[in-house]
Amino acid sequence: MDIDLHCHAKLSKGSSFNIKHFLKIKKSALRNGLQAIALTEHFDTNRFTEIYEVLEQHYQYQNDYFNIEGLKVFCGMEVDIKEGGHVLLIGKREDVLSLHKELSPFLAGNTYPSLEYLTEEANKREMIKIGAHPLRNDNPLGKLPDTLLKKLDFLELNGKDIKKSSCVFQLAERLDLPVVAGSDTHLWLQVGCVRNRLDKDCTTVSQIKAALEEGKYDTCITSGINIKLSCAKIAKKILKKLSARNRTDVFNHNN
């Protein structure tokens, strides 16, 4: 089973959830040979729970995933931490929503949870804990003390930071943590540009975690990844500008 462990449902935190946009990601995922993705939207995105409300209205949730026209969509979220950096958490739908509710005081207070607190809450729910893009300049998760980083299950080989892959593997070796792949896609152009090829089909989060912990997978980088990333970056900028312009036009019309 090929799975991308870092996918966003929306173009940006401030944008609304658009099912048509997400279905383009789904279509691209299937076209590029993925059987599954983890939906890891930012926990502080605009109307986070609306994403799951819409999916529940249209698609069947079975085992631990939504079956969206043949693509397994596992649930999760990306959380900013107080020390700096992001953590991906993947779990059952009810656990993702439960943890999001638990984190609501941090949203209201405009602060972020500590890594220790976040991992403790994730462990209660038996969620997968991944250190996202650990060497990204503006989110230096990899600069945290080893004792904190070892609370994670995995480090991420992020599609957008593929040029730092050797450094990520070096950090992972120092921490004795496995490396898993996630594209960090917000747009259909880049979904699956990096992926995990599990040696068997998985239908639950616990099965995925076991396969990753036991090393029963390969980390794959698709050919032409740099072209895909460049095109996605340009397209995202254009779409964000168009979205902002449309919001301004609506405001002016209403006033």
Report the count of strand segments.
11
Radius of gyration: 17 Å
Distance between the termini: 51 Å
Tell me the helix content: 40-55%
Number of domains: 1
Q: What is the element string, with H for helices and E for strands?
A: EHEHEEEEHHHEHEHEEHEH
* CATH architectural arrangement: Alpha-Beta Barrel
Unreliable segments (pLDDT under 50, ≥5 consecutive)? 247-255
Explain this structure.
The chain has helices at residues 19-31, 48-58, 93-102, 104-108, 115-124, 146-149, 165-175, 205-213, 225-254; strands at residues 2-7, 36-42, 60-62, 65-68, 71-80, 86-91, 128-132, 154-158, 179-182, 194-198, 217-221. The chain is built from nine helices and eleven strands. The protein is α/β, with parallel strands linked by helices and 255 residues long. Helices cover 40% and strands 24% of the residues. It has one domain (2-254): Metal-dependent hydrolases (TIM Barrel), CATH 3.20.20.140. The chain starts with a strand and ends with a helix. A hairpin with a 2-residue loop joins strand 3 (60-62) and strand 4 (65-68). Strands 1, 2, 3, 4, 5, 6, 7, 8, 9, 10 and 11 form an eleven-stranded mixed β-sheet that branches. The longest helix is centred in the last third of the chain and has 30 residues, at 225-254. It is globular and about 40 Å long.
